[in-house]
């Protein structure tokens, strides 16, 4: 099980979701993708993406500076 | 003491509606609503500039009326202060409302500019301008929300398509785009994509099934071929012994009883001997044919120029007898069973000599590389073959001519074809009756000799 990190800091929605979508085919079942983002709708967008594509929204960590660190399991 | 003046007399005024004219008061500057200078005047402080230049004021003002005048002035000043205070409070309220409203508008715009369109500020304000401005901010946020929601919907839809197509491309034929979108275009795209996957997966499933069937059929064919080969070998091998017995005794009969029995008996024995010989030949041919598959040697690097020389040596008697001119190109080195390769070339050249016409036989062996295949050809100037027999001539024991015309059992080309097929190649003929034939066969280019003949 690999852990990959994707940095979308500074990118406005829906860019982060599109970045995740492009990254997705490289991930194997069980792998974890950690995405960093600071777009206001970032968490909501990633939750929707996970829900619609059947991926597991593992966790979200807020560092207080409007930046969030979300883990997705494939 | 100055003599007091009456303004109506001084100005010869006839304005009966003027309160001074009516009351005949001499302190006209303290009376509001006078009709001086054809205008209705206000209270003292409002007309003071006019009064200061006016004769009745200058003349009639005295200590007694001064006190009253100051009182009026004081009252009026109080009233002004009250008005100013009121105005001040009003202005203070307005500017506070303005500041608060603008702050809310500013906050809202800031949120929007940072990419968060989920903004709704209360639109109530005592200032119409501010409530209109707030309404515009809310409308902008609302419109922006719609656009952002749409772009999210598109992004998620796109991501879903990407994911599904990726899964299909990796072999997951059950993958489909699910969910319902409010965007008509995405719904249509989903239907089209799912429909396309349906078609493709149907086709792939069908192809996989066909491939499996083909594989099974090929396997069965290979098994049955191997069994047939084994059968042919065993049958022809085991037939040898009883045939030899029949042949020997019939020949013994022929030798011992020739001319001792009647004429019919001699003839019958002759038929029996001939039949036994022919059967011997057929069995030998059958053995040769089956041995291509069962007794083949492993492939090794073979110089086809050597193969050609060996075949030519084996055919020297026939060559000499027919006067044939046999030539070849510089031939390549290929991976092959050398003995079989010699047999192949030898059979083709022998056929070319055998099926000659009246002219001197001219036979040429050549080769040409086409991609990963060597195409060999053996051409002659012989009698040629009608195109309707192009397939038949490669079948076992098939002959186009009578025994007496051209000898042989019809095994040669069948053996050639089997040898070529064992080497992973194919064989065919191109010919014209009376002008000659050109037999082609292919072999794969061996990796070590890629691109260079000889």
In short:
Chain A is an alpha+beta fold. Chain A contains two helices and four strands, in the order βαβαββ. Chain B has helices at residues 7-10, 19-23, 44-52, 55-60, 63-113, 128-169, 184-257, 263-294, 304-314, 316-322, 338-354, 412-422, and strands spanning 300-303, 325-328, 333-336, 362-370, 373-379, 427-432, 436-444.
List keywords for this structure.
heterodimer, A: about 70 residues, alpha+beta, four-stranded mixed beta sheet, B: about 450 residues, five-stranded mixed beta sheet, two-stranded antiparallel ribbon, 12 helices, about 60% helix, rod-shaped, disordered C terminus
What does this structure look like?
The complex is a heterodimer of chains A (74) and B (454). Chain A has helices at residues 15-23, 42-53, and strands spanning 3-7, 32-37, 56-62, 68-73. Chain A is α+β, with helices and mostly antiparallel strands and 74 residues long. A 4-stranded mixed beta sheet of chain A has the order 1-2-4-3, covered by helices on one side. With 454 residues, chain B is an alpha+beta fold. Chains A and B meet through helix 1 and helix 2 of A and helix 6 of B.
Per DSSP E runs of 2 or more residues, the count of β-strands of chain B stands at 7
Structural class of chain B: alpha+beta
Q: Provide the helix percentage of chain B.
A: 55-70%
Question: Biggest β-sheet of chain A: count, sense, barrel?
Answer: 4 strands, mixed
Uncertain ranges of chain B: 450-454
The profile of the biggest β sheet of chain B is:
5 strands, mixed
Could you tell me the strand content of chain A as a percent range?
25-35%
Mean pLDDT, all residues of chain A: 89
Shape of chain A: globular
How many helices of chain A does DSSP assign? 2
> Biggest sheet of chain B, strands in spatial order?
2-4-5-7-6
């Amino acid at each position: 099980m690999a852990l990959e990190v994707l940095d979308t800091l500074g990118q406005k929605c829906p860019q982060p979701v599109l970045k995740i979508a492009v990254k997705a085919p490289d991930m194997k079942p069980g792998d974890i993708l950690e995405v960093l983002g600071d777009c206001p709708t970032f968490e909501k967008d990633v939750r929707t993406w996970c829900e619609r594509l059947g991926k597991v929204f593992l966790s979200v960590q807020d560092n207080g500076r409007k930046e969030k660190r979300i883990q997705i399991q494939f | 003491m100055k003599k007091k003046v009456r303004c109506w007399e001084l100005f010869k005024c006839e304005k009966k509606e003027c309160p001074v004219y009516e009351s005949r008061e001499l302190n006209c500057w303290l009376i509001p609503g006078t009709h001086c200078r054809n205008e209705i005047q206000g209270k003292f402080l409002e007309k003071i500039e006019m009064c200061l230049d006016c004769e009745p004021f200058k003349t009639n003002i005295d200590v007694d009326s001064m006190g009253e005048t100051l009182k009026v002035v004081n009252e009026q000043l109080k009233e002004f202060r009250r008005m100013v205070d009121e105005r001040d409070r009003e202005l203070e309220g307005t500017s506070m409302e303005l500041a608060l409203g603008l702050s809310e508008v500013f906050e809202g715009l800031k949120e929007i500019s940072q990419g968060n369109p989920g903004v709704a500020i209360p639109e109530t304000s005592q200032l119409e301008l501010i409530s209109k401005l707030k309404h515009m901010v809310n409308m902008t946020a609302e419109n922006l929300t719609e656009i952002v929601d749409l772009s999210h919907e598109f992004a998620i839809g796109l991501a879903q398509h990407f994911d599904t197509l990726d899964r299909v491309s990796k072999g997951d034929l059950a993958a489909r785009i699910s969910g319902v979108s409010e965007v008509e275009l995405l719904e249509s795209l989903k239907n089209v994509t799912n429909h396309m996957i349906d078609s493709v997966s149907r086709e792939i499933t069908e192809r996989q099934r066909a491939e499996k069937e083909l594989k099974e059929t090929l396997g069965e064919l290979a098994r049955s071929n191997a069994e047939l080969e084994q059968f042919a070998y065993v049958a022809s091998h085991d037939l040898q012994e009883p045939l030899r017995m029949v042949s020997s005794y019939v020949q013994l009969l022929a030798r011992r009883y020739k001319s001792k029995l009647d004429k019919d008996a001699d003839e019958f024995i002759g038929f029996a001997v001939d039949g036994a010989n022919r059967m011997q030949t057929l069995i030998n041919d059958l053995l040769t044919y089956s041995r291509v598959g069962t007794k083949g040697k492993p492939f090794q690097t073979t110089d086809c120029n050597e193969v050609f020389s060996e075949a030519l040596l084996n055919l020297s008697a026939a060559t000499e007898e027919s006067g044939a001119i046999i030539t070849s190109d510089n031939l390549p080195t290929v991976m092959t069973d050398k003995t079989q390769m010699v047999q192949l070339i030898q059979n083709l050249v022998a056929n070319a000599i055998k099926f000659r016409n009246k002219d001197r036989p001219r036979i040429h062996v050549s080769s040409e590389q086409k991609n990963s295949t060597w195409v060999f050809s053996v051409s002659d100037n012989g009698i040629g073959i009608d195109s309707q027999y192009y397939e038949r001539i490669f079948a076992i024991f098939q002959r186009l001519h009578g025994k007496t015309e051209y000898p042989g059992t019809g095994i040669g080309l069948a053996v050639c074809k089997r040898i070529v097929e064992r080497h992973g190649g194919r064989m065919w003929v191109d010919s014209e009756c009376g002008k000659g034939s050109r037999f082609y066969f292919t072999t794969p280019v061996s990796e070590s000799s890629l691109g260079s003949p000889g």
